[in-house]
Amino acid sequence: MTYLLSAAWHGFYPGYYGCFLSMAFFVSTSRKLRRVVRPLFLGSSAIKLFYDCLTTVCSLLLINFAAIQLCVLSAERVYELYRYFYGLPHIICLILFVFCPKPKTKRA
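-> structure tokens emitted (108 positions)
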């Protein structure tokens, strides 16, 4: 809801909605993935550092991909952007979101 409100706040260009809705999708996928994958990398400080660096780079790439839509604004150019990248950021996140196992909840 916050991302949709942010898009409306900025204006009614398709690029705003593409950016903020993409970010909502990327964030929800990364939160789900982090709950499942991060505990696997907490064994040693070197492995944790590798995980932290890898996820930072992935986050920056996704943020930059989404932010390009803020610059192009028009639906045609947003579509052109998606075609240029073959929609891979969204496809990869969709696959990760769907096939990532449900995070285990701790019982008190």
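The two ends are 30 Å apart (CA to CA).
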